[in-house]
Amino acid sequence: MISERDLARRFADLITRWHRVVLLGTAVLIALAGWRASKLTLRPNLAELLPQNDPAVVALRDLDRRVTGLSTVVVVVQSPNPAANRRFIDDLMPRLEAVRASIPVIDDVQAGVHQEESFYRRNKFLYAGLDDLQEAYARLHREILKRKNPAFVDLTGRGDSLEDERRQIDRKERELLGRFPGGYFATKDQHLYAVVIWLKTSLFGEGPGAAAAARISDLAGALGPARYDPRMTIGLTGSVVTAAEERQGLENDLVLATSICVTLVCLVIFLYYGRLRAVPFAAIPAFGGVTFALCFAQIAFGYLNSSTAFLGSIIVGNGINYAIVQMARYEEERRRGRDVRDAVATALAGTWRATAVAALGAAVAYGSLAVTSFRGFNQFGYIGFVGMVLAWVLTIIVLPALWVTFDRHRRGFVPRVRGFALAAPVARLAVRRPGALLIAGGAVTLIALIALPRYLRDPFEYNFENLRNQRSRTSETERLSARLDPIFGRTLSPNFILADRRDQVEPIRRALWERNKPRHVLGDVKTIDDYLPGPPAEQQQKLAVLARIRALLDQNMRLLDDKERADAANLRPPDDLRVVGIADLPATVRRYYTEADGTVGRIVIYYPRKDISVWDGKVLLRLADVVQSIRLPGGETVRSSGSAVVFAAMLRAIVHDGPLVTLAAFIGVASLVLLLTYRRGGWWLILGVLLTGVLWMVGGAAITGVRINFLNFIALPITFGIGVDYGVNLALRYREEGPGRVFITVAATGGAVTLASMTTIIGYAALLVADNHALRSFGAFAILGEFACLTAAIVILPAVLIFLERHRGSRAAVGGAVSPPVSQR
C-alpha cells in the first residue's frame, strides 16, 4: 500500500512537471469565473432572505402583483417664503406631468388635496350624519316659524341661528381640509411644501425607481430654486430614495470592508513571512476560491442578498488559512536546506490531512446552513461551501505550482519566519504551568455557563433599527421624511390586506379589530367604503332630508335679511346632489384601493397606533399576530404581509432552523474529524477543544450583550467548521512529532494557526466598519468565536497534552500509538 509520503512525492513530481500548465489553466478559469461573477446583482430586500414558499413572501408577491404604485419619491421644497414655495410647486407640477410619458414608471403626481377639496365641498352635506341632518332641518324649521310668528315659543330651548348652523358646517370643513394650507401638502407655517410622485416599481427590487428619482431631482433642480427665493432648498425623500440610500450604503460598506480585508490580510502575511513574495503565494488560492464561489452564486442564484453580500471578505479570511499552514511547513523544510520538490512533498504530506479537515470542516459547517429553506441561511451555506472547498483545492494544486515556478532558484539559508512572538511564550507557559492554564480555562468555562441560561431565554435582537444602515437614520433623507410627518403622518406607507372578494372586506375589518383587542397595536383600519357618505340606502334617506331643507329655504328666503339670506345660501344643498358611488370618489382616494387590473374595493388598509414604534420587534410580533393570518367566519383564511409579518417570519425561521443548523454543523464536523483522525487518535481532544471554544463564544456574547439577528446567527454554525482548524492542526502535528514535543508543536504550528486565525479575524473585523449594525454584530459575534477557539486550541490543548503526558503517559494523551519524530530542531 502506498504511504501518504510516497503519494505526496508523486504529486510533487507531477506538479513540478506540469506547473506552467497548472498556472495557465487556473488563470484562464479564474478569469472566466470573474467575468461571470461580475454579473451578480445585489438584492438587500429582507424578503429575499425568506423561503420562496413562506406565507409572508407569497402574500408579499401577491401584493406586488395586484397593487401598483406603492413606491414614492417626495420632492420637498423649503424656504421661509410661502408664496415662493407655492410658485415653485405650481411651476414644477406641469413639468412633472409633461415627463410622465418619458418616465412610464410614474403612476401619479400629487401636490395637494385639490381634487379631494373640490369633491368634498360639492358633496359635504351628504357626509353629515342622518341624525345631524334631521336635527338641522328641525332647527331651520323652528327658525322659520319664529320669523313667521313672533309669538312662537321654542319649547326645545335651542336658540341656534342660521349663522350658528353655517359656522358649524364651516368648522367641520376646516377639520377635514384645514391641515392642508390652500389645499397644498404643506406644514402649518408653510415653510415646507411637498410633491408626492407615485412610482410603479416592484417591492422586491429597486428596478427603475432610482433612475426615475434622479430624473425628478434634475427636473426640480433645473427650475433654479434660488430664482424663487435665495433661501430655498430642494430635497428628495420617499420609499424609493430611502431604499436607494440603504442600497448605496450597503454597496459602500461592501467595497470598504473588502478593501480593508484584502489590505490587512496581505500586510500580516508579509509581516509574518518577512518577504513580499509570500503575499501572492498565500493569497492567490483564497482569491481564486472567492472568485469561483461568486461565479457559482451568479449561476445558481443570480444575485447576492444582505446575508451573502459580504461573503467575499469572509471567504478570503477563512480560505487563506490552508495556504498559511502549508506555507509554514514548506518554509520550515526550505530553512533546513531542502530543494523545492522535497519541501513541497514534505509540506503536502504533513499538512494535507489537517488542512483537509479544516477545509472540509468549514465547508460542512457552511453546508449545514443549506439544510434549511431560509434563503438567508442556505444561500450563504452553498456559496461558503463552494468557496472553502475550492480554496483548499487551489492551495493543494496551485500553491505548489507557484513555488516550483517562482521559488525553485532560491539557494542557501532562508531567513527565519518573523512571526508574532505569540506561540512560543504560550508553548513555554503550557509546558511549565499546565495546571494553572487548565484552572484558568475551567474558570472561564464556569463564567460562560453561569451567563448562558438567562441569555438563551431570549437572545434575539428586537430593535429593528439596529438592522438598518446607521447613517441613514440621521441622513438628510430621513430628516426630510420626519419633517413630513405633520402633513402625512403614516399615510404614505400604509399596510395592505388583499381580499379575494368584495364581500370579504368588512369581515376582514371586524376580524382585525377583534384580534387587536388583547394586543392593542392597530390605530386604524380603512376600506374604500369609509370614503363614501354611507351605503346607497342611507344616502337616499339623506337626500330626502336635504331636499326638505332645500325646499324649506327656498320657500322662506323672503323672510330673511341680507346676511341671513347669505348664510342660508351656504346652507342650501345643491340641486344636483345624488348618491355618491366608488367611481365618483377622487382618483387620489381610489388609487389606494385600486388593483393593477382596475378592480376597486378589495383592499383593506391598516395603520399601527401612532404612539408605538414600528421599529420595535416585539411590537412587530404583536402586529404580525393580528394581521398575518385572518380566519373569516365562513372558514376562509386571508393572509397578508408587510414589514411586521416579514420580521416575524425571519424570527420564526431563526428559532426553528437555528438549532437544526447548529446541530447539523457540529455533527458534520465531528463526523469529519472522526473519519480523518480516528485511527491516528486525538479526536476526542480536538472535539473537546472545539466545544470549549464555542461555549466561550456564546458566553462572551451573553456577557458583552451581542444579540442574535437574522445575519449574525450564521456565525455560530460556521465557527464549528472554522474553529476546528486550530485544534486539528496542533493535534495532528503533535502526533507527527511524538511525545515530549509539545513545545515544538505549539511554537511551530501554533504560530501558523495564530496567523490563520488573524486573517480570519481580519475578514470578520472588516465588517465592523460597516454602517449596517446587523453586519457589525455578525463581525463581533464571529470574532468572539475566533478568539475563543484559537485560545482553547493553543492554550488548553497543549496544557491537556502536558498534563496527560505527566500523569497518564503520552499514549493516553493522543489516544493511540505515537509515531516517531520526523524532524529535529
Low-confidence stretches: 151-159, 810-825
Strand content: 5-15%
The shape, in one word, is: elongated
The structure class reads alpha+beta
User: On the 0-100 scale, what is the average pLDDT?
Assistant: 83
Query: What's the total number of strands?
Result: 11
Helix content: 55-70%
Radius of gyration: 36 Å
Q: What is the spatial order of strands in the main beta sheet?
A: 3-4-2-5
**CA-to-CA gap between the ends?**
30 Å
The major pleated sheet works out as: 4 strands, antiparallel
Summed up, the helix count is 29
Structure, briefly:
The chain is of the alpha+beta class and 825 residues long. It has helices spanning 4-37, 55-66, 82-99, 114-123, 130-148, 162-177, 209-222, 225-228, 239-273, 278-300, 311-335, 340-368, 375-406, 423-432, 434-457, 470-473, 476-483, 485-488, 505-516, 536-556, 562-571, 587-590, 617-627, 643-677, 683-704, 715-737, 742-765, 773-807, 810-814, and strands at 41-43, 71-78, 106-110, 192-199, 233-237, 303-305, 495-498, 522-526, 603-608, 629-631, 637-639.
